[in-house]
Amino acid sequence: MLAVNPENRAGEGDPLDRARRAAARAFVPYSRFRVGAVLEDERGRRYDGCNLECASLGLSVCAERVALGIARTDGARRFRRLWIYTPTRIPTAPCGACRELLARYAPGIDIHLLSDRGRSKKLRLERLLPRASRVRTGRMVR
């Protein structure tokens, strides 16, 4: 049985607070760059993720991908919002790999970039990754 955060119920908890708590749980001994993400599905359930680093940096995982994996494992298939928090002066956008996975599993999602000092920015995924690749029945489609 999957141990999912009981706060995943629809609308539970402020997204900024949840993303901050997730960032505090990040394992980042190399970059010291903490990221917390909260992904909301079409039913309003929210899934938290934090980044996890590995000595082999290619095996590290971003907070956005952790949240997406937890949500998919819990049965969520359609998503409407993603909040990403970084303890920085200005908001930080997701990396290219996260943008690609979001384009595949959460097309059209609203992304809220959050930072310290109350700065935030709201974007659509299409603005961060225009003309994203799509795969249909084994063929690349543009």
Describe the structure in brief.
The chain has about 140 residues and is α+β, with helices and mostly antiparallel strands.
Explain what you see.
The chain is of the alpha+beta class and 142 residues long. It has a single domain (6-141), classed as Cytidine Deaminase, domain 2 (3-Layer(aba) Sandwich), CATH 3.40.140.10. Helix content is 25%, strand content 25%. It has helices at residues 15-24, 63-73, 96-105, 125-128; strands at residues 36-41, 46-50, 79-86, 110-115, 120-124, 134-136, 139-141. The strands form 2 sheets. It has a 5-stranded mixed sheet with strand order 2-1-3-4-5. A two-stranded antiparallel ribbon has the order 6-7. The termini are far apart. The relative contact order is 0.15.
